[in-house]
Design goal:
Layout (H helix, E strand, L loop, with lengths): L1 E2 H11 L12 E4 L5 E2 L1 E5 L4 H9 L4 E4 L16 H11 L3 E4 L2 H5 L4 H8 L3 E11 L5 E14 L1 H11 L6 E3 L6 E6 L8 H6 L4 E4 L4 H10 L2 E4 L2 H5 L2 H12 L6 E4 L11
Parallel strand pairs: 4-5, 4-13, 5-6, 10-11, 11-12
Antiparallel strand pairs: 1-3, 2-6, 7-8, 8-10, 9-12
Length: 267
Amino acid sequence: MVKCQVVMDAIERLAPKRLAEDWDNPGLLVGSFKQNVRRILVCLDVSDAVVEQAIACEADMIVAHHPLIFKGLKKIRTDLPLGARLQQLLKHDIAVAAAHTNLDIAVGGVNDVLATAIGLEKLSTFVITSQAEDGTVESLGRMGTLPAPMAVEDFARQVRDALPASHVRLVNAGKRAVRKVALCSGSGAEFIQKAAFMGADAYVTGDVKYHEAQQAVELGMHVIDAGHFATEFPVVEVLREKLSQELAEYDVEVIADRESTDFFQIM
């Protein structure tokens, strides 16, 4: 058993809250820092299915990537999805914490996990979010290189096979081989131009729209849209491992959500 505060301290070491974007809402969102925790469920989204898993496995805490609550609540309607979810969590005394953009930016976080999974090496910063006086630079997304140039079709298949994705969407900008790759997990289409200007042969992200794909082709850069879910879900198991290590001295079990799937299916 461990206090929730100890778990939050461990999360802070892995993904410091100071790294989070101003609009974000990481931290403890449901529950008390004083409550006891014996079992933690790590997940991407606090969905109804995840809450059911937490109840079934008698988890005392959920640690998610996406915050359950983003904006201030003026009412809690238990006949609506969020209110019903909150009611279940409070009824079963399950705390909920989130590490969102702070986990995206943190070393060893979502983007590093994605870069490693798809075979990138020599990682560097992409969208710089802060720079300390000692020269330490924090970045959203990553730049990296492949061991050898690849045809974009082969690289797209490599990305698909490395992630929990049934497919990827390839924006093919021509015969350009892929060696230098930029990426931003989740939803990063807003950085297509930046990736192109930084010399990326290909950009891996999710949630790309039609005109954003058109922009990439005009800039001569390939884009691989592997989906929001698939580019972020791999961090769940990694976060489980890291939390287990951080809490090794305590009598607490950390388990990962292995049941959730992408909301999108190809018919």
